[in-house]
Amino acid sequence: MKCRIFLAILFILTAPCYGKVTILHLNGVFLAADSLSMYYTTDNIDCLKQCGKNSSCIGVQMMTDMGMCSLLTMVRDVRNAMECDYYIKKERTVNIPGRSLTPLQQILQNSVYATQEACPEGWTDGGNCTSVVSQSACENYATFLGATYDGTKCVMPRMNVTYSCPNTKLTLKRFSNGYFCYAMILRGQLNGTIATMNDFCYNETGCYLASIHSEAENEFIASMRDSSLSDNGVIIGLESINGQVENATDFQWLDRTVLDYANFDDTSVPTKGVYAFPYPVMSTSNKWQTYTDQASFDLSTFAKSMICRCDASATYS
Ligand SMILES: *[C@@H]1O[C@H](CO)[C@@H](O)[C@H](O)[C@H]1NC(C)=O
Ligand SMILES: *[C@@H]1O[C@H](CO)[C@@H](O)[C@H](O)[C@H]1NC(C)=O
Ligand SMILES: *[C@@H]1O[C@H](CO)[C@@H](O)[C@H](O)[C@H]1NC(C)=O
Ligand SMILES: *[C@@H]1O[C@H](CO)[C@@H](O)[C@H](O)[C@H]1NC(C)=O
Ligand SMILES: *[C@@H]1O[C@H](CO)[C@@H](O)[C@H](O)[C@H]1NC(C)=O
Ligand SMILES: *[C@@H]1O[C@H](CO)[C@@H](O)[C@H](O)[C@H]1NC(C)=O
Asked: What region holds the C-type lectin domain (predicted)?
């Protein structure tokens, strides 16, 4: 084995903004997990980036000798071993009372409960948590997770979990991708770039401009808007990657979550000389508007609000 370094190395994949994915190099550790997909590459960083871009990916196995990258999901165990191929995304700490864990076991628990639900991601939430996998895969789970095979499926205890927001300005709401806290605030006379607006969100609420991941979330945000104000556009946490403003491929979320839902108003390619907004705005039709062909458009009278969002905190009991 060619593991030379037995220290954890941090890879921080960060774009020049707020969101980032931290990936831990698990030197001297074997990771039991399913493979989401594999492809040929000798580029470790590309392998990590591909994982960073996919919310289902929890880690990677970078098989340098074979020139292959495997994106991993459904992690089951971590064990000390003569291995240096494995990397895992750093997730929020999940404390489950009554469990005394080693630092490595804690990393595993954080990944298994990365979605901060009562059951691990991908499991069915019933009276217990269940997953249809083979007996051997079920027995592969680290003992402390409490998985048992019942003859047809793998069963894990359902956790008691409650969700809360950091302060009372925020409203708790659940969507298919998790629990979040929202606050709609007024922009007032503030001018500037999207970074200015994002700072303002943080200063006022402790959260950042929201990314939007489903029609349900889009509708919920629209419903928080003060409808007594006319032309009340809402600044959202979207930014143009290179100044182009044509379609979804030109944009990314400030928080670096995956752009997996799009609701752009801009259906036709704009003509030259359009006014590209410094920050995209959810218009009163609830579509995302990023430019106008009226050069004299006064965005400051239109973008009256902004939507701030953070992850809810989960408490396991
Ligand atoms: C993540 O990767 C899997 C397998 O390659 C794919 O099916 C899924 O659509 C990807 N998800 C996203 C959000 O890209
Ligand atoms: C959950 O699993 C345990 C152990 O397998 C079992 O005793 C219990 O009846 C199950 N509970 C429910 C609600 O299915
Ligand atoms: C959840 O709470 C109930 C009632 O307080 C308790 O009986 C049960 O053991 C708890 N479940 C877990 C997994 O701790
Ligand atoms: C922001 O811009 C608007 C319109 O251009 C202007 O009326 C307002 O005074 C500006 N706000 C500040 C704080 O300069
Ligand atoms: C946010 O707060 C910081 C520190 O108080 C201040 O320097 C900054 O100007 C504020 N930004 C906005 C946009 O309110
Ligand atoms: C988005 O626009 C680019 C040109 O800027 C074009 O190459 C690409 O095909 C467009 N994508 C979609 C999905 O329309």
From this structure: 177-289
Whole-number Å distance, alpha carbon 304 to ligand 4 midpoint, is 12
Q: Is 222 helix (H, G, I), strand (E, B) or coil?
A: helix
Ligand 6 atom showing the smallest separation from residue 269 Cα: 2
Over 80: is that where the pLDDT of 141 sits? Answer: yes
The one-character DSSP state at 152 is S
CA neighbor of 75 nearest in space, from 41, 26, 5 = 26
Residue recorded with tokens 């902004």: 306
Atom of ligand 5 nearest to the CA of 197: 13
User: Could you give the domains of the chain?
Assistant: 163-316 (3.10.100.10)
Tell me the per-residue pLDDT of 55-79, one tens digit each, with 9 for 90 and over: 889 999 999 899 999 999 999 999 9
**Residue 240 and residue 247 in contact, taking contact as beta carbons nearer than 8 Å:** no
- What b/e sequence results for 103-140 when a residue is b if at least 16 CB atoms lie within 10 Å of its CB, and e otherwise? ebbbbbbbbbbbbbbbbbbebeeeebbbbebeeebbee
E strands of 158-219, at which residues?
161-164, 171-175, 178-186, 208-209
